[in-house]
Amino acid sequence: MLEDWLQQIEEASSLEALEAARVRLLGKKGELTQKLKQLGKLPPEARREEGRRLNEAKRALEAAILTRREALKREALGARLAQEALDVTLPGLAFPPGNTHVLTQVLAELVGIFQRMGYQAVLGPEAEEAFYNFDALNIPEHHPARDMHDTFWLTTTPKTSQIEGAKLLRTHTSPIQVRYMSQHTPPFKIVAPGKVFRHEATDATHEAMFHQLEGLVVGDNITMADLKGALLAMARALYGPEAKVNFRPSYFPFVEPGVEFEVWWTNPKTGKGTWLELGGAGMVHPEVFRAVDELRRAKGLAPIYTGKTGFAFGLGVERIAMLRYPIPDIRAFFQNRIPFLTQFRGGA
Amino acid sequence: MRVPYSWLKEFLVEMPKPEALEAALARLGLPVEEVVRVGRPPAGVVFAVVEAAEPIPGTELKRLILNAGREVVVVSGAPNAVAGVGVAWAQPGTELPGGTAIDRRVIQGHTSEGMALSPAEMGVGDYAGGLLTLPKDTLPPGTPLAEVWADEIVFDVEVTPNRADALSILGVARDLAAALGIGLIHKNPTPDLRDLPFPIPVEVWDESGADRYLVAYARHVKVGPAPLEAQKRLLAAGQRPINNVVDATNYVLLEFGNPLHAFDRATLFDGLVVRRAQAGERLVTLDGIERTLTPEDLLITAKKGDSTIPVAIAGVMGGANSEVGESTREVILEAAHFDPISIRKTARRLGLSTEASYRFERGVDPNLPPLAARRFLELIQRWGGAEVSANWIDLGGEKPRHRVQFRPSYANRLLGTTLGKNEQLEALHKLGIEIRGEAEPYTALIPSWRIDLRIEEDLVEEVARIVGYDKIPETLPEFFPAPDNQGAEAEYQAEARIKRVLSGLGFQEVINYPWISEGFLETVKAPPPTLWLANPTNAEESALRSALYPGLLRNLLTNRDQPALLIFELGHVFLRDEAVHLAALQSGPYHRPTWQAGFGEGYYALKGVLEAFAARLGARVEVHPERYPHLHPGISGTVVWEGEARGWIGVLHPEIAEPLELGTPVIFELTLPLPQGSPDITDVPRFPPATRDLAVVVPRTVTHLEVAEVIRTSSGPHLRALEVFDVYQGQPLAEDEKSLAYHLTFQAPDRTLTDEAVDGYMARIIEALTQRGWRIRG
Questions:
Q1: Chain-centre distance of CA B201, in angstroms?
Q2: Which of A158, B69, B237, B281 has the greatest number of CB atoms lying within 10 Å of its CB?
């Protein structure tokens, strides 16, 4: 009889069937329960014997139910987990990765290099007055140096025949030098990133809009050696410990002496080194300090720049980006094609 | 500046090899842009003399009978094919540098045996407008020209505007001699001068325009081709040979840097006057164009009775009426020094940049005219058999040398070097700078050709240039910035942060040009522009942008192939004042479809981005319903950032979007700087919150913001959070009603709020809501 009962438990194929078997055997009206209830009808001798047997059977059944229940639970969990299994190789929810423009990244890196040397990054307007863009930078009207700047002139009346006027799109970031000095006291170190504009037909290497980083340090005894040091620090941060800086005489009316600076750069693909012309630099021209002091006087500020020394530099950002990545055509920067822009991930 | 190697060699005692020359020039700040190798004429090209030139009736052509060792007949259309000159004749079978094979051929029915060549056809110059013509006794006819025509290396040197002194062979040689320590050969022209009276009076009426005016005289000039050697040089330097007189002026210009002008004496009548033009005066210049003049222009005029007739625009270009030609017998040579600004203004206004104006506007050595004139007279005597006069007129005369203070200690202070005094003075001396004085400060006497050396810093540069910039060490400045520089980079930091945050929220940054088509601005109903490019490269794109979103819409157009677009731009816009804006555009779902459907689209997606963006910057942002011409009137509003209206957000108006097939992009645009947020920082509450739900039925036109405002102001002190969890329209509500359901969280910092207390707050809220005529649902 016990054999038969145990078999019923073993054969229960689900938790529900097991429960049904338990009720059938051990429930209030279950077979074993019925038998236990009927014990009183037996003679005392037989009652004791039968009682012991039935209680043993009950314990055995309860143990078997417990074991079977655990087994069935494990099976059910296994089945559920198998049911829940996913193809973990399928792509996840498509979060947009987002990205800054590659030129923002390169500029941020350059600015960061100088910020770590204590420079502050300052900004200026793009529609600039000819005074700041030229005159105050020792490029007076009718000076041949203006030919070096193909200028977009601005007008408040469209389709005017008047070309040269008071306002223009800045041709370099250097006007920020004058704007900054007219409002701040030396010594200081600043860099000024920004867009500049040249009236130029565009092709693969020429753009009418590009980005520059300007640097200016003014103090009591700033030297050209300090300029070389600043540019060497930048070159090393950009191109590694082997980088070198070289000066070649050149002419920018707002510095004297004026140089072009080259950086020794090893092409990571070919392993070959070459001098790269990165920009112009020099010692702030006394005429610029004079113009700044005049401006300060007009604003009611003390003229404090005459007799100071300082250095300035300017470099093109697109060039650096184009060397770092294979970007063969400068026009790609401002066409804003998503497949182009989204490639440059992982930058600053 | 094109510098032929062989010409430069005439000025240097010891000539460096071409490769060494290139490097030396770069170190001097005269970088070589290009090295051009000019080859010799091809084999088969021989010297020939034009015996006769007969026009062929009914054509522009001439039949030339040449003596090329034997008589040959060629046909030529060149204007300068005249009898009595030597030419370069390509025999049949010659292959020209361009690859053309010369053959016996028939031109308009006339047989030509081979061809007479222009310099360009020979590959020895750029000039293609006429034949190379030479004196007829240059060589025995039939001599191959390659035998007397050596290869030439030409250095195209980039000369910055300050280095006018280097715009000549002599100038380049002078710098090289100083830098390399090589001797400079000084040319001393020795024309055979005769005591001929100067034939006409010369007057300068405007000395500010011409502070030195020297004129020389030559007669019995035989005008014809210049010698072969001279023409080779001129061609290699990029000049076009004309005749021996004009070529002599150009030769001296290139050699010494002083522009010269030769007049046919006969065209000057009774005298020469230098004066300003009268308004509206006209002159046909050598290029055949009639120029209208203004009182700014300096003129050379011929005196005729009481009038003065313009014959040249001073320092820019001569007049066709005074040109030296075949019939010229007497020549008046002008070697002058003109005011750079005056020349530049005239040249710019006329759009006429010549070799002369280019040099005069940069500055010519004012003491050069006597040497230049002597050299011209020597050449014209040698090339044209002229008698040259020892008498010349030099108005204005020699100019004194400039004096500039120089302190070697200052040079070291500026350069950061420890160069010795003698080393510095020696460097200056090499450049022809004379030093006066025994100790600092010295006086430097500047040579007249260095018009760029006017202040002490200029001399410091010269020291560095000659000593070498590699002598400058590398140091880093150490100082404490002046206090008023503190905080100067706030604007940069704010912009950099905005770019980082918005790109971190999934948006791609774009950079557009500031110029855009005014028509497009109008189409997308952007504010009208206030600034335009006066000289756009593309007339269609001449307005400066008044907002960023038109650019983003264009980006949407160029990226139509993308399933979704999330872009932003931070840039300058040009309204009444220049301002910095930030704009973002979303088109399509935020989460693009993969094997799962895409989602996160429409107004609430971008508004969520705006809210997350503001939250990330620690600022509170709200949108207040408002209409904008370019936005969907029912889905648009003002962005209120920390209580200030800073821009707008909404769906592009279908009237704009549909014709352009732009879909339904959502855009926001804000004006920077965005007010700084000031988040409330409090302890994390230790006492449990009590939450209640509340649904309010309001007319559809009532906004969530209005309901929330009523709840907040009536809720008592402990409402910690208010969240919308359901918005419902439809049955059983009336047509014009909606239900807004809120989770309200109450929490006190110092105690657990009792049910009674929260019930009290709720009662007050409900009372305030019902007072507005709204009802509570459920």
A1: 45
A2: B237
Yes or no, beta carbons of B469 and A248 under 8 Å apart: yes
Contact between chains at A163 and B510 (C-beta distance less than 8 A): no
**Alpha-carbon distances, residue B291 vs B281, B312, B342 (angstroms):** 8, 11, 16
Would you identify the CATH topology of the domain B490-671?
Answer: BirA Bifunctional Protein; domain 2 (3.30.930)
Distance, in Å, from the CA atom of A43 to the CA atom of B54, rounded to the nearest integer, reads 163
Interface contacts A/B by beta carbons within 8 Å = 271
Domain ranges of chain A: 2-84, 102-341
Q: Does residue B673 have a cis peptide bond before it, meaning omega lies within 30 degrees of 0?
A: yes
Q: Do A251 and B489 touch (CB under 8 A)?
A: no
- Indicate the residue of A155, A230, A338 with minimum beta-carbon distance to B534: A155
Give CATH superfamily name and number for B45-150: Nucleic acid-binding proteins (2.40.50.140)
Write the ipTM: 0.91
Q: Which of A93, A123, A253 sits opposite B596 (nearest CB)?
A: A93
Q: What is the 3-state secondary structure (H, E, C) of B367-411?
A: CCHHHHHHHHHHHHHHHHCCEEECCCEEECCCCCCCEEEECHHHH
Nearest C-alpha of chain A: how many angstroms from B19? Answer: 17
Class of the CATH-defined domain B2-39+153-180: alpha beta
Q: Which two tokens stand for residue A182?
A: 């007219």
User: For B311, phi and psi rounded to 5 degrees?
Assistant: -125, -10
Measure the CA–CA gap between A249 and A260, rounded to whole angstroms. 6
What is the rounded distance in angstroms from the CA atom of residue B122 to the CA atom of residue B203? 46
pLDDT of residue A347: 63
Cβ–Cβ < 8 Å for B344, B315:
no
**pLDDT recorded at residue B412:** 97
Taking an 8 Å cut-off on Cβ atoms, the answer to whether A142 and B503 are in contact is no
Opening angle at CA A323, ends A322 and A327, nearest 5: 35
Superfamily of domain A102-341: Bira Bifunctional Protein; Domain 2 (3.30.930.10)
> What residues are paired with B299 via a beta bridge?
B275, B313
**Splitting chain B (778 residues) into consecutive groups of 10 residues, what average pLDDT does each group show?**
96 93 94 92 93 90 92 90 92 87 82 91 89 94 92 94 96 96 94 95 95 97 95 94 96 97 95 96 95 96 95 96 92 97 94 94 96 97 95 95 97 97 96 95 97 97 96 94 96 97 97 97 96 92 97 97 95 96 97 92 97 95 97 97 97 97 97 90 88 96 95 93 95 94 94 94 96 91
